[in-house]
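Hello again,

I reread your note about wanting to compare the complex against the isolated chains. To keep things tidy I'm splitting this into two emails, and this first one only covers the full assembly. Below are the input lines as submitted, including protein chains and any nucleic acid or small-molecule components. They are followed by the predicted structure of everything together. The single-chain runs will come separately.
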Amino acid sequence: MSENADAGAKGASDGAVPAAWEPVIGLEIHVQLATATKMFCGCELSFGERPNTHTCAVCLGLPGSLPVANARAVHFGLMIGLALGSELAPRSIFHRKNYFYPDLPKGYQISQYEEPLCRGGRLGDVRIHRVHLEEDAAKLIHVGASGRIHGSDASVVDFNRGGTPLAEIVTEPDLRSPEQCSEWLKLLRTTLRQLGVSDVNMEEGSLRCDANVSVRPAGARELGTKAELKNMNSFRYLERGIRAEIARQVEVLQRGGEVVQETLHYDPASDRLTSLRSKEEAHDYRYFPEPDLIPVAIDERMLARARAELPELPAARAERFQRQLGLSRESAQLLAFRAELGDYLEAALAAGAEPEPPPQALANWVSGELAGRLDEGADPASSRVTAAALAALVGLVSAKRVSVGAARQVLDKLVTEGGEDPAAIIEREGLAALDGGEELAAVVAAALDANADAAERVRAGNEKAIGPIIGTVMRETKGRADGGEVRRLVREQLGI
Amino acid sequence: MIERSEVLAVARLARLELSEEELEPMARELSTVLDHIATIRQLDLTGVAPTSHVVDVTGALRPDEPRPCLPREVALAQAPAVSADGFLVPSPQA
Amino acid sequence: MSAGDILELSASAAAAAVDSGELSARELFETYRVRAAADRDAGIEGLNCFTWVADEVPAEAPPAPLHGVPIAIKDLFCVEGVPSQAGSRILEGYRPPYTASSVSRLREAGACLLAKTNQDEFAMGSSNENSAFGPVLNPWDRARVPGGSSGGSAAAVAAGLAPWALGTDTGGSIRQPAALCGIVGMKPTYGTVSRYGMIAFASSLDQAGPLTRDVSDAALMLRHMSGRDACDATSLHSASVEPPSARRLDGLRLGVPEELAGEGIEAGVLECCRSTLSLAEGLGADVAEVRLPHAPHALAAYYVLAPAEASSNLARFDGVRYGLRAEADDLLAMYTRTRHDGFGPEVKRRIMLGTYALSSGYYEAYYGRAQRVRTKIAEDFAAAFQSVDYIVSPTSPTVAFKLGERTSDPLSMYLSDYCTVPMSLAGIPAISIPCGLSDGLPVGLQLAGPALSDSRLLDAAHALEQAIEFDPRAARV
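Full-complex prediction:
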């Protein structure tokens, strides 16, 4: 018995995968390259302009027109390959993928097939299968009330997008969970953004992700039958779509059924997967080498240029943060994979604050305290808190010139009001740390009086009882006191 | 002789309607030509590389520089059916 | 200058006459325009050479090397605003918004567009009987075909309806009609002339070239349209074509491949070619036998590769952006009916053949093998050119055949390309020159050289042409 997704496609999105089953996932990512012009003609890329205003004889597929490949698209392809550690083909060729569809003006898509630009490679824990160049299809706008494919009787073709250069990145089936897919795709997005080869915006379609999902009994080596998931145009939908498909396949397999190889379309509105079984016959793309284009020959000069433009990439940066700054692995990755946080950290370290903040403490303040006070995903560099101010603040904290609690108050001020000099805010607000002097000793003495019972218990060896005493001190000092110093004074005054 | 069903399948791939009267002659003519072509099956071509291009050109890439687009009305002028915005087609899944 | 005198001029001579002031460009153009328009208006009662004729003399242009000499071009070359439908119903009424690079170059050199010429639909045919505009008739004998697919171009030049014409050659589509009409036709090295704006038949084989009264004209036209074009990735940086001047062939070795000079070639054609080879020896050439062992398989390989590419090239004719559309409620029916109604029988046959050859399960047996045969054929030529300078053969196995004679048997039609297809597969230059008559009909001799030898190939053809002294006048209308 075999089953396809239409039979009760509602995904059990919430269910965890039973331990007896292992999901196996590979991703196919289409990235629109940020060139000035299209893949095979001189039309400028379109960003929401009026339909059919960015076309020419080539991208309309007029009779007699010929494609010529965009040098920068090849250059971007090489940068991607270098960044992923791929093997770059000295000669790669374009093929024609033949099929009829109104968004495909020539009746074929020019794409790389047998000899892609890049083979192999790795990003994070995931191996790359290949990277190749191709042209995007045009946009088919379905006329009719629903705005959806089914149920409308006519469509309008807009060729503005047609011919936009795409890099297709195909992974090996190395991913094991929806969350891992989404995390890894974020890493890829950051990497591509760092490279400057694409806008990588999922909502706008410059980053598109399909997933090949299969499930196998835990411990099995053989892969199960896969389904291809399309149209998951956000990280959230990617996770939800994959989760729903895993749940569906597990359910089919647990009932003793068989998964059918098919293409599924994820509809976020209903959280449903719909089979795209068309009325057409099985695809037979009749690939053959594109006779209008010659092989792309990569020479040393092109490689050198691609290498020269390669920025430091997230994985390398994380490694450097660990090695050079002594950051923990987790912290290094957090800051490197969100490039704007990493950039901010480096700017703060370079600010020359006195006293000098230790890198790990500064990293924690950037990714924790500061990022936590900003909108999710915001770039701290565009906040009111300058890197120099944060560095100075963390330097004061580390030198115990201001307590952590007081520093948080200072940061609140910096976030809302800005300002270059945290020391001035500390001074103005009276937030300077109470050092081990008489003022703090007096406050501690008063706190011991006020918490006499607790003081007795501490003296009797109950360490936990110290909490309320310290709490009182902190309240009285408005957080200016250093917790460790207070603890020391309590024990001193209790004679233990 | 190429099968009738095969002719129909190929015609569908090629998006060509073949009427009942066209079908039989097409099958016959294709068979004749395919029989002639079959002579290359007798050749020993092991180890021979395929030729896709006879020219030896390299570096024929285009600089990423914009060139003028066609005015919208020119792009649409030759189309059999247009709407205000673009080329009108029967919906793929109607 | 009288109209009769004007018609006697080759294109080169006409350009010179305009340059010297003996003749005005306007008078030259109008003389031909009137004749071409008359043939167009006569339709099948004339030779049916043209699909479109200019309706006025072009405006005075600044002086340029071709001095306003009128040119007829094959319908499949796109010219902005001028009907360009490659002889097909599916492009009925189509007027391209841009002009082919080759045509632009000829215009920049001073040529003026006289007319578009009739052709086999999408250049598929060897008789010019596959045109939406009806057949072209051979000016030597109106009951016979002019050859194809550049039949309109060849007939127009032979009949004196145009001084010269531009055609395309995929498997012999310039050389074979040139031979059947008694004129000069050349397929340059693949990549010499830009393909941009040529409505494609088979991209890896298509090549534009001249159809002219003599070899000097062919050189002149090629000179003004060859060279690298940024719009065609497969175009070449080629050396400039120099005017041919040779009168002798001293020290040159001509190779005659037995594979192209024996079985299947008409006796009268062979006889003509043999006597021309004797002339060549008289001019100082050495004639030797060479082998092209895979040439007999060229036709089979060609009839896989060319239809395969064509099946893909013609997929764009889908009724969406231009040309014919058959109305239908659903997309599939719109596609299939549009293509059913728009394409003629030969085009359909080749689309079917090519689709079959590329389809899953057959690719390696057909397309893959044909590509390997292509390699062997190129190697055969390379080996032959180790021992000879040029390869000589008949251009067509027969003289012009009768209208309708081969239409019912595609394979017999395809055999018309037997001698021309090997050079196409190898991408090498080849020229057909008239070398005599057989039963009162012209016979063409084909000379082929190594890639990029175009200029010296023209030189050798020129020397032979001078010795042959072919009289073309019987074809003039």
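For quick reference: Chain A has four domains: 1-26+176-278, 34-163+280-307, 314-429, 438-494.

B.
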